[in-house]
Write a structure and sequence with these properties.
The structure is a single chain. This protein is of the alpha+beta class and 617 residues long. Among the domains are: 208 residues, ATPase, nucleotide binding domain (Nucleotidyltransferase, domain 5); 110 residues, Substrate Binding Domain Of DNAk, Chain A, domain 1, CATH 2.60.34; 87 residues, Up-down Bundle (Substrate Binding Domain Of Dnak, Chain:A, Domain 2). Helix content is 38%, strand content 26%. It has 16 helices and 30 strands. The strands form nine sheets. Strands 3, 4, 5, 6, 13 and 14 form a six-stranded mixed sheet that branches. Strand 15 and strand 16 form a beta hairpin. The protein is elongated, with a radius of gyration of 30 Å. The termini are far apart. The structure holds adenosine-5'-diphosphate (ADP) and magnesium ion. The site of magnesium ion has 5 residues, from loops.
Length: 617
């Protein structure tokens, strides 16, 4: 029987012939993998390595070079050679200000809140554009290998990446000509590569220890019914194999009486010694001593010296592991599997220390550089519908919500929520005696519904007449695994209810979704300002309404002066509401509230007194 796989997201039958590739877009190195004969393999380059250094170089003619060749320019032409761009993904200048000196290239400060740009000569690039260059290189590499075009990918990101960083990664994929079907957490990918999801029916707790070139991440995952959940993450964004190299260089500087100034002034010497240190580190993973001549001087180090030098660094990673375990509310004996990821976990002392800490043999049989990319390829294969017995877990690609007063979008199910899912919120009426309530359902990320996509609307009828604000109307969104959205509205005091069903993703392509997401980022600032103004106006209108009610109901209790002053303040507020200065509106609301609060208290006391008088005991 033929197997048909349905793409839940797009509501159409998936094209089996399309290969989906897996990409590990790393801080130091990136790689691409795919499934061949049911086996995940990473695509190797000329030098027999699958690693593409995540480095982009711009030569004098403005040509772009990525990978090993670009790495060679790191010391000779640092201004035009961009490394560690992943650290800048989805970040504003404010976010990176304190680590800016780490970068050898120029990061542009335009406006502290906006996303960073990188200046290369007189051109400006976003981290998204630079990452796209790395992705293009990977795309080329696999297309050459397979001799056919590829256009669909799964890309991995650290578990702690926020929405903006994930979105930036998606956008980079799009720029590189890749349809990014899924963003997968790196620790999840590593666990998939080890097939941990296939080992047992029972829930599993997994610690993924990832020590790369410049970053360290520990993630605690819970796997249940094929679903990975991140329980906790911790780490150090400036700790990795580069630090191992650095402590070796420091050791040689001391042992061989090298003038530290020479490291700063003599670039080619400093590069030579740094590269020798990395070779020393790598060779000490399998041998006991290392020795090499640099400019006629012997540089040597043995394993036990190296181990004592890196011991404090490993200790730091263990502290992060402890913190993550504490956050996850677990003890070490709760961990079922420990997975080793990243080139630096090849160092035997790292492996042994982590194995000791968790009291468990670690999973290290796969190449730690490749394991994330291999897992991404496996996830890609699942998405392509090629693997049996695996539940296709899906998320809603765009936020779902309703229109509220002023044309604002009120999100009820945020994008990237796992489906099936259910969420609800209570609303009320804005007019006295309101009998009907229109519920308009929208999809999208923008703050104003006019920029989002309307999915449908209905009217909740028969609300018993009540003063504005009294009805309790619960709106519930129920999204099932097929992307069918059920929207229910119910007035809780009277039990009147209505519901509709909508196919939320029908007819919307990944590209259109991507465009909507991109626009939401581009307009984020102005959207936010508009939302703030509209919200201030809504609040002001509510206050104006209740103030006029208050005046008519309590005329008898208030003095002429009090009435006069209240009217004056109401007028002032009305004036600001028609303007566009949200701060002025807020100020006028403050003034009115401040003046009327004691009056309202007095009125309440009088009214309660009256009620008591009328009561028969
Ligand atoms: P990232 O995830 O940051 O892109 P990787 O996982 O590719 O980084 O790890 C790169 C680091 O691994 C480098 O510091 C490299 O020197 C180190 N490394 C690679 N092989 C070995 C080895 N055999 N022994 C020790 N360190 C190694
Ligand atoms: Mg990595």
């Amino acid at each position: 029987m033929a197997k048909i796989s349905i793409n839940i997201k797009e509501g159409k039958i998936a094209d089996q012939s399309d290969l989906i590739i897996g990409i590990d877009l790393g801080t130091t190195n990136s790689l691409v993998a795919y499934i061949k004969d049911e086996q995940a393999i990473a695509v190797k380059g000329k030098n027999k390595s699958a690693l593409v250094p995540s480095i982009v170089h711009f030569d004098a003619n403005g040509n772009i070079i990525v990978g090993d060749e670009a790495k060679e320019k790191l010391i000779s032409d640092p201004q035009n050679t961009i490394y560690s761009v992943k650290r800048l993904m989805g970040k504003s200048y404010k976010d990176v200000q304190n680590v800016e000196q780490y970068f050898g290239y120029q990061i542009i400060d335009e406006d502290t809140e906006s996303l960073v740009k990188i200046r290369v000569a007189d051109r400006f690039f976003t981290p998204i554009e630079l990452s796209a260059e790395i992705l293009k290189e990977l795309k080329n590499r696999i297309e050459k290998e397979l001799k056919k075009e590829v256009s669909k990918a799964v890309i991995t990101v650290p578990a702690y990446f926020n929405d903006a960083q994930r979105q930036a990664t998606r956008d980079a994929g799009k720029l590189a000509g890749l349809d990014v079907l899924r963003i997968v957490n790196e620790p999840t990918a590593a666990s998939l590569a080890y097939g941990i999801d296939k080992l047992s029916e029972e829930a599993q707790t997994i610690a993924v220890y990832d020590l790369g070139g410049g970053t360290f991440d520990i993630s605690i995952l819970q796997l249940q019914d094929g679903i990975f959940e991140v329980l906790a993450t911790n780490g150090d964004t400036f700790l990795g194999g580069d630090d191992f190299d650095r402590v070796i260089v420091d050791y040689w500087v001391q042992e061989n009486n090298i003038d530290p100034k020479k490291l700063v002034e003599d670039k080619s010497f400093s590069q030579a010694i740094r590269l020798a240190a990395e070779r020393a580190k790598v060779s000490l993973s399998s041998k006991n001593t290392f020795e090499e001549n640099i400019r006629g001087v012997k540089h040597s180090i043995n394993k036990s010296t190296f181990n004592s030098l890196i011991q404090p660094l490993i200790q730091q990673t263990i502290q992060s592991c402890q913190a993550a375990m504490k956050d996850a509310n677990l003890t070490n004996s709760d961990i079922d599997h420990v997975v080793m990821v990243g080139g630096s976990t090849r160092v035997p002392l790292v492996k042994d220390s982590i194995s000791d800490f968790f009291g468990k043999t670690v999973n290290d049989s796969l190449n730690p550089d490749e394991v994330v990319a291999l897992g991404a390829a496996i996830q890609a294969d699942v998405l392509a519908g090629n693997q049996k017995n695996i539940l296709l877990l899906d998320v809603t690609p765009l936020s779902l919500g309703i229109e509220t007063v002023g044309g604002l979008m009120d999100t009820i199910i945020p994008r990237n929520s796992k489906v099936p899912t259910k969420a609800g919120r209570q609303y009320t009426t804005s007019v006295d005696g309101q009998k009907n309530l229109k519920v308009a359902v929208y999809q999208g990320e923008r703050d104003l519904i006019e920029h989002n996509r309307k999915l449908g609307e209905f009217i909740l009828r028969g609300i018993p007449p009540m003063p504005a604000g009294l009805p309790k109307i619960e709106i519930q969104f129920i999204l099932n695994a097929d992307g069918i959205l059920k929207v229910k509205a119910k007035e809780l005091r009277s039990d009147v209810e209505t519901e509709i069903e909508i196919r939320s993703q029908y007819g919307l392509s990944e590209e259109e979704m991507g465009k909507m997401l991109l626009e939401s980022i581009q307009h984020a600032q102005s959207d936010m300002a508009t939302r703030a103004l509209l919200e201030a106006r809504n609040e002001a209108n509510n206050i104006l309404l209740s103030s006029s009610k208050f005046l008519t109901q309590n005329e008898a209790i208030l003095s002429q002066e009090e009435i006069h002053k209240t009217i004056q303040l109401v007028k002032a507020l009305e004036d600001t509401v028609s303007g566009t200065d949200k701060d002025a509106i807020n100020k006028a609301m403050e003034d009115l509230n401040e003046y009327t609060t004691p009056l309202a208290h007095r009125a309440m006391d009088v009214n309660i007194g009256k009620a008591m008088q009328g009561k028969k005991v």
